Amino acid sequence: VYFEVRKYQEYGKLSGINLEELRKGARVEPGEGKKNPEDFALWKKAKPGEPKWSSPWGEGRPGWHIECSTMSTKYLGESFDIHGGGNDLIFPHHENEIAQTEACTGKEWVRYWLHTGFVMVKGEKMSKSLGNFVTIRELLQRYSAEVIRFFVLQKHYRSPLDYTEEGIQHAKNNLERLYNTLENIRIALEKAETPFKWGKEEFELYETIRDARRKFYDAMDDDFNTAEAMKPIFEVANAVNAYLTRVEKPKESVLRKALEFFRMISEVFGIFEDYFKEAKKTKEEELIKLLIEVRSALRKQKNFELADRIRSQLRELGIQLEDTPQGTIWKRIEL
């Protein structure tokens, strides 16, 4: 059973395909039963060894395109907001899905189409056939899910994503820069002043945070432009670090504004999630502070061997201790 494309007047509205160009040089193969070369299968006759179901046209199975239309309308309704897929599915698959579904229901099927670029390796599409692919499972053995997510977010979803180890390592380094900023804020809050009265430095930092929030939303409203949305995140990180370097006694209220910004980023991008889990963070911090107290006591007793062992083993767990004139501080250093 074929869908007669010529009877659907809007065919090509997604891909911009020209039917007349499509027909040039095309022909109907003997025995196909099509009226026109561009017609596509809705139901296929059963073949030996294939799954089959009964139908008014005999035993067979659904065509590739109709499967997707049927599943999506069953679970999402005759009209829904977002349909995604790779760029290679725009034509003919998604074009055919639109034609058959809207011809059936008489309604607009999908309001927004999101088509992703290919994952590339040295200029070629990553694929099993070329043997140049890496699975997510393999990547997760070397990097956290957060690092992989951050790597993907650095490119617009419609653009090709060039996979390299150097690229993922660069994403990891950039994410560590942001985590270092969060750690700097946490440490600064321990000695920050609570009065709300701000000086020039606080107002400058607040303006940067406010502008960055607007830039972030503008970028995300522009077709989910995550690559552009990354820029204001680093603007805030740089501004916070510069503020903490310049100011002897930072103000708690403006640092809380910076934390609110990073929490918003966390909720949208799915990064820093563990950092903002208060219960887990509190227990972890209490344990680290206890170990710092034990280490300080050991140093006073001149038991430097055991004190150094605590420091080195904490570092292996991703916690770095720094001895300062004001006391020992700690930072998370690994992802």
From TrEMBL:
Q: Which NCBIfam families does this chain map to?
A: cysS
Q: What class of enzyme is it?
A: ligase
* The protein, known as: Cysteine--tRNA ligase
Q: Which residues form the signal peptide?
A: none
Q: Where is the Cysteinyl-tRNA synthetase class Ia DALR domain?
A: 215-276
GO molecular function per UniProt: ATP binding; cysteine-tRNA ligase activity; metal ion binding
- Catalytic activity entry: tRNA(Cys) + L-cysteine + ATP = L-cysteinyl-tRNA(Cys) + AMP + diphosphate
Keyword Ligase on entry: yes
Q: Which Pfam families match?
A: DALR_2 (PF09190), tRNA-synt_1e (PF01406)
Alphabetized InterPro entries for the sequence: Cys-tRNA-ligase (IPR015803), Cys-tRNA-synt_Ia_DALR (IPR015273), Cys-tRNA/MSH_ligase (IPR024909), Rossmann-like_a/b/a_fold (IPR014729), tRNA-synt_1_cat_dom (IPR032678), tRNAsynth_Ia_anticodon-bd (IPR009080)
Annotated Gene Ontology cellular component terms? cytoplasm
> Which family does the UniProt entry place this protein in?
Belongs to the class-I aminoacyl-tRNA synthetase family.
Species of the source? Thermococcus litoralis
Q: Where in the cell is it found?
A: Cytoplasm
